[in-house]
Amino acid sequence: MQVIFNADDFGLTKGVTDGIIQSHTKGIVTSTSLIMNGRAVSYAVEQAKKHPSLRVGLHLVLSWGKPLRMDVDDLMNEHGYFKFTNTYNNMPTPNLEQLKSEWQAQIEAFINTELPLNHLDSHHHIHGWDPIKKITIELAKQYNVPVRYIPSLKCHREILRTDYLYTGFYGNGVRKDLFNQLKKVKTDTIEVMTHPAIVDNVLKELSSYSTKRENELDILKSIHVPDWVTLIE
């Protein structure tokens, strides 16, 4: 089985960034996803350039923080933040023209860092939301970059990074028997979503998922990779 261990939220905070770097240099994480409206983006880019073996993709955002563009009013609330949340499935369809321009801005901001763009995924997996997945497909083809597997995109294998996404290494699923769980999945290529971090005060302010990130980091640094697994980027 070929496995990608990807760390989400690179650049969210300095502690998250440092944790992801450790999970790569001392552990099994092979790639990460940079969130362009995070609090430590410049620091994350600096660290990525010091560790070129860590592949970096883009964590597209529509459901957290502020947009990069200021002319996407239909995507924002009265405080200038994205109005969409992790319950977006129950929300009205976004203004698709504004969404595409915002996501292009996020991609172009990434490209301007001069880091190679390895892949696309998104916060809360919103890139697979049915009303907007057409934009995801268009951008993947426009920038010639693979996209994180989501069931709603399974018919577009030509753009997918793997055949399956494992989301079980999260919350109560953060356990040392991770590879035993992966072995039960019948697939050839799989991405494991992870969120390692060194918890800092900024992270505590921004995310309800904090303490468990250090548990993830400890496991990702200590876990043994069995011989039936090939780590890929």
Summarize this structure briefly.
The chain is α/β, with parallel strands linked by helices and 233 residues long. Helix content is 31%, strand content 14%.
SSE blueprint and pairings:
Elements: E1 2-10, H1 14-25, E2 31-34, H2 41-50, E3 55-60, H3 96-111, E4 120-122, H4 133-142, E5 165-166, H5 178-183, E6 189-194, H6 201-206, H7 211-222, E7 230-231
Parallel strand pairs: 1-2, 1-6, 1-7, 2-3, 3-4, 5-6
Helix pairs in contact: 1-2, 1-7
Question: Top keywords for this entry?
Answer:
single chain; 233 residues; alpha/beta; TIM Barrel; seven-stranded parallel sheet; 7 strands; 31% helix; carbohydrate metabolism; Glyco_hydro/deAcase_b/a-brl; magnesium; hydrolase
Notes on the structure:
The protein has 233 residues and is of the alpha/beta class. It has one domain (2-231): Alpha-Beta Barrel (TIM Barrel), CATH 3.20.20.370. It has seven helices and seven strands, in the order βαβαβαβαβαβααβ. The chain is globular and about 50 Å long. The model has no long low-confidence stretch (mean pLDDT 97). One of its GO terms (molecular function) is metal ion binding. Keywords: Carbohydrate metabolism, Hydrolase, Magnesium, Metal-binding. Its cofactor is Mg(2+). It comes from Gracilibacillus halotolerans.
